[in-house]
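Tokens for chain A. Residues wanted.
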């Protein structure tokens, strides 16, 4: 991994990847709700952009064994962790992992669903990442963004501390910027807040 962003991600996760799934269970709210929603849908392929340790992809594979799943991540250290678990569970025929950047990775195929689960707030250029995702979703496909919100209903002090804490992990929440971008680019979306603005989930479609 030679580009600066991938190096940064490897630095963020160098040690924390070993306790990632246990520790993030309490912070990354809404992931299981999103997976349940996906599990009810009729899709053939899903790509998770910023799939990390493969936690979500493995859960999706267990829900439905006939669909093809793809994971992209900037950090090869996180992907090594994912690869190990996927092999252990013998899911390598169903889940295919790719190392690269959300902003530019070329899959040469389109997916029914793309998912950004707590990854869009970490990419260096969220506009490029979304444009690339829009290129890779089929015309009737859906992109889901689950991420940290603006903590609207939290006291100011907690809000400030949360932003400082997230910055330590190179996380920069940008809900309002995302919505402005979608409006400017005529991308349709529905959104709802989770836990008083702690996080949000947005469903994007091309039409
Ligand atoms: C907070 S983790 C979320 C992992 C997983 N989606 C989950 O819900 O547990 C964010 C992941 O996004 C990846 N990431 C950050 N910037 C990226 C980029 N530009 N392209 C691809 N992956 C990226 C990080 O390496 C990390 O694995």
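Reply:
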């Amino acid at each position: 991994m030679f580009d600066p962003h991938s190096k940064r991600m490897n630095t963020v996760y160098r040690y924390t990847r070993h306790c990632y799934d246990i520790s993030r269970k309490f912070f990354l709210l809404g992931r299981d709700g999103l997976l349940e929603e996906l599990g009810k849908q009729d899709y053939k392929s899903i790509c998770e952009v910023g799939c990390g340790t493969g936690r979500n992809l493995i859960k999706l594979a267990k829900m439905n064994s006939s669909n093809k799943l793809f994971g992209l991540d900037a950090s090869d250290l996180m992907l090594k962790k994912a690869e190990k678990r996927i092999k252990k569970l013998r899911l390598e025929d169903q889940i295919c992992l790719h190392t690269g950047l959300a902003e530019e990775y070329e899959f040469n195929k389109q997916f029914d669903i793309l998912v950004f689960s707590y990854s869009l707030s970490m990419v260096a250029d969220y506009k490029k990442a979304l444009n690339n995702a829009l290129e890779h979703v089929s015309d009737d496909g859906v992109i889901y963004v689950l991420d940290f919100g603006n903590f609207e209903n939290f006291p100011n002090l907690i809000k400030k501390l949360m932003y400082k804490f997230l910055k330590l992990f190179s996380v920069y929440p940008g809900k309002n910027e995302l919505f402005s971008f979608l409006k400017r680019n005529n991308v349709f979306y529905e959104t709802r807040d989770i836990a008083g603005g702690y996080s949000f989930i947005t469903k994007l479609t091309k039409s």
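The longest helix spans residues 76-88. Helices lie at 4-13, 20-24, 31-39, 55-63, 76-88, 126-136, 156-168, 175-184.
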